[in-house]
UniProtKB/TrEMBL annotation:
It comes from Maribacter cobaltidurans. InterPro entries: DHFR, DHFR-like_dom_sf, DHFR_dom. The lineage of its organism: Bacteria, Pseudomonadati, Bacteroidota, Flavobacteriia, Flavobacteriales. PROSITE patterns: DHFR_2. Coiled coil: none annotated. This is Dihydrofolate reductase.
Length: 160
């Protein structure tokens, strides 16, 4: 899974992000390029068009939902989306409900922790430190391009 979330696990409000972090966008692009990305319909609809060099798997309950892009596949459950992943890296990219469903299937969480609390209507699931172990962190202070401090945190699922 890959996400940016506030200290309170806030993700977004009204289908929009709560911050603009160009370096986080670059990291997202670097990590997800060349891979399949799994998302809910609302997350997909926040993009002006499909993200380049990625296969989009869009989950929706709407059996009549279609998109006119070759790079996109529409499915109707997370399990159906996961069936399209064949021994390869893929990323769950949101939104909140898809993250909640997907956590039990994930082996890595790439989280950008935005240092602040935000007025949100969508949240990332609470990370259980008994299940997830921090294996890398990188702090990024606010600057002229970034209104908030943030930290990249890589979690790996603990061996059971």
């Amino acid at each position: 899974m890959i996400a940016a979330a506030g200290e309170d696990n806030s993700l977004g409000k009204d289908n929009d992000l709560l911050w603009h972090l160009p370096d986080d966008f670059k990291r997202f692009k670097r990590l997800t390029s060349g891979h399949k990305i799994i998302m809910g319909r609302k997350t997909f609809e926040t993009f002006p068009k499909p993200l380049p060099n990625r296969k989009h798997i869009i989950i929706t309950r709407d059996k009549n939902y279609t998109v006119p892009y070759e790079a996109c596949t529409v499915v109707h459950s997370l399990e159906e989306a996961l069936d399209l992943i064949d021994n390869e890296d893929a990323f769950i990219i949101g939104g909140g409900e898809i993250y909640s469903q997907g956590e039990k299937h994930a082996n890595v969480i790439e989280l950008t922790r935005v240092h602040g609390n935000f007025n949100a209507d969508t949240f990332f699931p609470k990370i259980d430190e008994a299940i997830w172990e921090v294996v890398a962190t990188e702090y990024h202070p606010k600057d002229e391009k970034h209104k908030f401090d943030f930290t990249y945190i890589t979690y790996k699922r603990r061996e059971s």
